[in-house]
Amino acid sequence: MTPxxxxxxxxxxxxxxxxxxxxxxxxxxxxKLPTVVEISKTWGVAHATAAKAIAQLQVxxxxxxxxxxxxxxxxxxxxxxxxxxxxxLRRTGDGTTVNEQHEVTAAEVIDAPAYVADxxxxxxxxxxxxxxxxxxxxxxxxxxxxxVTWYPARLADAVPTLLSTDxxxxxTVLADVQAA
Length: 180
Fold this sequence. Notes:
The protein is of the alpha+beta class.
């Protein structure tokens, strides 16, 4: 167990575990999760801790719970957060998710807004790459998120796909940036 994982409360560790299994497709849509009693035995935690993890997954829309148990929700109900997408990329080498499509609506070099320059530790007015894209389900469920990502302009030469509006590059840009 890494020091970072050891510092997380047990319910967060359990939630992260099942979120990762759902995100990676190891627990497909409709799959039944273990019961609270089974989770508490497996993880060596109190029933309340296991129940808190299940409740968190439900709040995130990853599972639905009924008297029959907890089941992985339909794909239309969930979308990876940028953090989850980056975590998946680091684990598997792939940041894309099945049943998602992306429309890149902007990919341009602009003067950095003050808050972006500050966050990226750049001089005020420095050039940055601004990428904007809409993530939707492939099932016509409509948009799931609008994302804007910012990169220092110096990456444009090393990662030319940052300035592409071709949706095919959305899943590869993070890997390209990390390799640069």
